[in-house]
Specification:
This is IntS14_C domain-containing protein. This protein is 28% helix and 23% strand. The protein has 12 helices and 17 strands. The relative contact order is 0.08. A hairpin with a 5-residue loop joins β4 and β5. It folds into 3 domains: 186 residues, Rossmann fold, CATH 3.40.50; 149 residues, Ku70, Chain: A, Domain 2; 67 residues.
Length: 472
Amino acid sequence: MPWLIAIDWAFQSLRKLPTNAKESYFEYSQSIVKSLISNIHTKDPYDLVSVLIKSPEDLFEFAQFSDSRSSNLQIVDSCPHPNEPLCLKTRFTDALIHSVQSAYSKFTSCQHIRLVVLTDGYRDFVNTNDDELKIPEFIRDEITCIVINHSGCQVPFRLKPLKYNFTDFHNHDNKSLTGCNEVADSVMKFSSCEISSTAILSIGHLSASCSLLPSPCIRPWKHINIRNYTEPQFYLEAFGFLQVNDMGHPPIVSRYTMVYSQDKNESGKDTLKVLLASLKGSHTTAIVNIYIQSRVDGDSITEKNRKFITHGFISESPVNVLSLSFFGEESKAVAWLGPFDFLASSGDFEGHEVYNVEKKITPFPVGSLERPSYILPAASSTIGSEFQYSTWLNNTNGPSADVNKIFRLCKRLPEKSEYFLKELHRTMSLAEVLGWTELTQAIQSLLPTHLSPDLDVEMLRKVYHTARMKVV
């Protein structure tokens, strides 16, 4: 679970503490941040932390995310100081909101982030401007904002934009100026939606304990009451394998790296190695059921208090490690694969040719009356002269490259009209197959703003028709 940490650089924070004349509110906040970072890495050494700093270009930004305790502790000493000229002329909330949006773009949707802000809480009486920055809707629900206020429960005027911008907002009263470790412990209690990074993987009679990076979040599945579980963790049940080419465009909402987790059963490490080698050698993915359960020791298997969450798959990532991808809640993940009777390793079909790229033979065929929209006509293809597989499976940026290509080609119309219409049709078709209405709507709303006003009417009609838009 990623953490963003920022210290308010209000000039009043240079005041000395009433309980310690040798330490200012700002220095006290720095000590709390160091305690919080230590707690985070003690609880989960793979959690990512980023602290708000001033870049060499005199810009405020969150430092590179890191799971290194020592590196993060050193960065705390580089927090922008209240008496720096840039801090004196820059409004804290403006810089913070800009930096949060930039940091959030590095993560997938459903990746819950904690934003911790420390402030002296001094009650300034400066009215805020009417043109406050607004966090986009798709971000405000994915971030928990926790303000540690050293002057009481009232949020100061200058931090009001945070309260209005984040749905999950908490103001922690630290007027008593308690010890740093105690304050850090209280912040950790806001992690109620977090799942232990340790998960149990089960493949037939084999099992292994693994860690998911970063720590998963139960927030996307709001119907799950996490309090029913003692140290909740995921249980991954691999029940079959699919060829990578047959995956098409799975509705992924989040993705995690899987690494071996130390336990008493050393065979678990070998299980993960064999799985990685098998997926890599056979070009397959392992389809899994994903459950939530109370934590168990090692890779023990128990069905007590277990609840199904969603489906997903395990695949080989570009950096030669296992990657676990989650589908969304109530996802009809295999609807576009077509009907099939068996879902198993190709080794179960002895005596039969179950997979042949040249002959287009697969153990999981799409029905003959269906047109598999995720296979597109192409002259240059490794699967014959008529078809080419197009997939976003191993692309960490999903459809971003295809969408960006469309808008780049927009600027070169009408010279690149044929190529542009082909790419637009391909991307819209893939989005429709996936049922990704948000993507099609986003393309339709942005496309008119990228088209040249000098474009002739006939070309404009073709563009609107391909984008499934009505010509006004």
